[in-house]
Each structure stands twice: as structure tokens, then as C-alpha cells.
Amino acid sequence: MSGRTQARACPERTCVGCRARAAKSELLRIVAVGDACVPDPRGTLPGRGAYVHPAAVCVDKAVRRRAFPRALRSPGALDTAGLSDAVAAVAAAAP
Ligand SMILES: [Zn+2]
User: Which CATH number fits domain 12-93: 3.30.1230.10, 3.30.450.40, 3.40.630.30, 1.20.1090.10?
Assistant: First the structure.
């Protein structure tokens, strides 16, 4: 992989919903699969990722300000209809 080097110790990402910085491990990675946004809780899907708190309020904010297509560099709109439910399911499954 190329690109910017990240500090190894505690990688931080910005939540695209509330714009707060948080440890990567506290955020949920979202990737675009086709033209839909899907959560990637294990961080294994290829491509760009957007990070959001696994909370409905942050997902809703991100969807409303169209942060996902921007963060994921999508040329068109992304389907986020199922994202809130998917994130809720991931959050519920988390310990
Ligand atoms: Zn947030």
C-alpha cells in the first residue's frame, strides 16, 4: 500500500457524521460496494473507507450531508437506505 504514513501507535480517523476524531477501533468503516454503502466491521473490504461512529445519530448526520459519497470519492450518489439498519445491526452485535 502506498500513501500517507500513519502513526502506528493509535491511528485516528474522523467520524464523517459528527466530525470528531476518534481511535480507528472506535469507528465503523464504511465502504462503497457497487452504488451502495455497506459497513465493514472487520475492515477487510477493498477500496476507500469512510469512518463513522456506530451510532444512528452519526450515520444520519453523514447521510444528510452526503458525507459518504464525498469521503468515498464516489462519482455519483450512493445508496444509503439500508445503512442505518446495517450499522444498528453491527452495533448490536458488538460486545
Ligand atoms: Zn460520530
Answer: 3.30.1230.10
